[in-house]
Amino acid sequence: MIVSILVKSKLSGVIMSKEKVKEIEMYYEVTGEGESLLLIHGLGSSTRDWEFQVPVFSQKYQVITIDLRGHGKSDKPKGPYSMQMFAGDIAELLKKLGIKSTHVLGISLGGGIAFQFALDYPNLVKSLMIVNAGIEIPMDSFKMKLEAFKRIFIVKLVGMKKMGKVLAPRLFIKPEQEDLREKLVERWAENDKKAYLSAMRALIGWSVRDQINKIKCPTLVIGSDEDYAPSSVKEEYTALLSNAKFIEIQDARHAVPVEKPKEFNEIVMKFLLEQS
User: Fold this and answer.
1) Number of H helices, E strands in the chain
2) SS3 at position 247
3) Domain limits at 14?
4) What are the backbone dihedrals phi and psi of residue 269, each rounded to the nearest 5 degrees, phi first?
5) Are the beta carbons of 121 and 55 closer than 8 angstroms?
6) Are residues 267 and 274 in contact, defined by beta-carbon separation less than 8 angstroms?
7) Which one, of 257, 244, 259, lies nearest residue 212 by Cα?
8) Is the peptide bond between 80 and the residue preceding it cis, with omega within 30 degrees of 0?
9) CA dihedral sign, ordered 28, 31, 37, 40
10) 113-139: b (≥16 Cβ within 10 Å) or e
11) How close are the terminal C-alpha atoms of the chain, in Å?
C-alpha cells in the first residue's frame, strides 16, 4: 500500500501526482485499494490509454498507472534511453511509494519493460501479464530493419501526427472505430519527437531471451490474432517460462485493451483472482 506521497491532488478518488525519480519527475496515478496492480503503457502512449481498464480493475485492486520517461506528463530528458533505465525508474518510484511488491501488466513496449523489470527486480513482482509484446527486438532481418527505418523516417520528416495517421488505420480497422482512430491521431500528435525516438531506440536490439527462464512468477501472455507479431512467436516464448500460459483474443489487433476492453478485462481479472 502507498504510505508516502509527497505532492498529490485528488479527483473522484484518483491520486494524481509526480515523484522525483533519479533525475526526472515521473507522473503517476493511483486508483482504488487492495493489492497493487501496475499498468505499463506502450510506445507513444500514457496513463490515459488505460481508461477502459482502471475503472474495472480498481474495484478490487490499487491500480497504479504511470507515464514512462519521455511520455505523457513525465519529464522528457535527452536520450539515450534503455529498457533497464525504464525498469529502474519504475523500481525507484515503487520504493518511494512504499510498495514492496505488485502485479504487473504491460503492453507492447510496456510488456518488454515488464519482462525487464521482472528480471532486474524479481522481489517486486507478484505476477506478470504481458500483452502483444516480445522478449526481443532483433535487427537481424531486412524486414525488421525496414520497419524501424520507416518509423524513424516518418517521425523525423513529417512528425508525430503523421505517425499517428499511419498507425490509426492499422490498429483500428473497422468503420465503426472512427472515434478510436481520431483519438489515437490526436494523442499521438502530443508526443515529443525526440523522446519518442529515444524510447523507440531503447527497443531496437533489446533481448532477454537468454534470461527469460529465470522468471518464476505466475505469468499470463495475451496475444491478438491479428497483432503485428503472430501468436506463434508468443506461444514459443511462453513455453520458455516455467509458470506461464498463453491466451489469444480473436478479431483483435495490437491495441487490444482499447479495441476489445470487455473481453480483455475479463481475462486479466480472472488471472489476477487466481493469484489471490
Assistant:
1) 10, 9
2) strand
3) 8-137+206-275
4) -65, -40
5) no
6) no
7) 244
8) yes
9) negative
10) bbbbbbbbbeebbbbbbbbbbbbbbee
11) 16
β 102-107/62-66 pair status: unpaired
**Is residue 36 domain-resident?**
yes
Whole-angstrom distance, CA of residue 36 vs CA of residue 103: 6
pTM above 0.90, yes or no: yes
Half-sphere exposure of 19 (CA within 13 A, CB side): 23
Summarize pLDDT for 171-209 with one digit per residue, the tens. 999 999 999 999 999 999 999 999 999 999 999 999 999
Task: Please state the rounded mean pLDDT for residues 111-125.
Answer: 98
Q: Where are the alpha helices (DSSP H) in the chain?
A: 54-57, 83-96, 109-120, 142-158, 160-171, 178-188, 193-203, 231-238, 256-259, 261-275
Residue entry with cell 535527452: 78
Does 48 fall in a domain? yes
From CA 197, how far away is CA 71, in angstroms rounded? 11
- The number of folded domains in the chain is 1
